[in-house]
Amino acid sequence: MASEGSKGIRIENDVRFQSFLIFEPASARVHDMDILARGPKVKELFDDVMYRLSSGDSLQDLIIQNRLSKIGKMMDLITNFDNVVLTKFFDRIWRRYSHLSNLGETFLDFKTFSKVFPDYTDQRQTLLAQRLDEEEEIVETSFHVA
Questions:
Q1: Are 93 and 16 in contact (CB under 8 A)?
Q2: Backbone phi and psi for residue 61, each to the nearest 5 degrees, phi listed first
Q3: DSSP secondary-structure letter at 128?
Q4: Which of 8, 45, 50, 85 is most deeply buried (CB count within 10 A of its CB)?
Q5: Tell me: the pLDDT tens digits for 62-81?
Q6: What DSSP state is assigned to residue 89?
Q7: Closest by Cα among 96, 83, 88, 134 to 113
Q8: How many Å apart are CA 135 and CA 96, to the nearest integer?
Q9: Residues facing 22 on adjacent strands
């Protein structure tokens, strides 16, 4: 749950919020309002995260590095990043979370992202996906044929 504090938005359970890296053709199923980055910017952000996390030697850091290494191997196979997207952060209890978790790979939780990129702390409101009511979620997650 997010609440407003003196320094903008404060997340009480920031490990519950996850972002996803989604490759094509599944990336076409992600709504534009849920996208944090697209195309070559995703690769730049991924490389920056890997560089910043490479110095960590705690068990948690090694687990994250291992998961991201797997994603890195997938990204090495890509020649065109135009249809690769990085989603905003979704709460695990939202229905759209399960939809996106089936489309792509878990990237980072919000706690780790905040640790890696402390400069983004003031931009939390733009980093978090909007929670939609149940009726909108059903329309939002339905498959649309282009």
A1: yes
A2: -65, -40
A3: B
A4: 85
A5: 999 999 999 999 999 999 99
A6: B
A7: 88
A8: 12
A9: 85
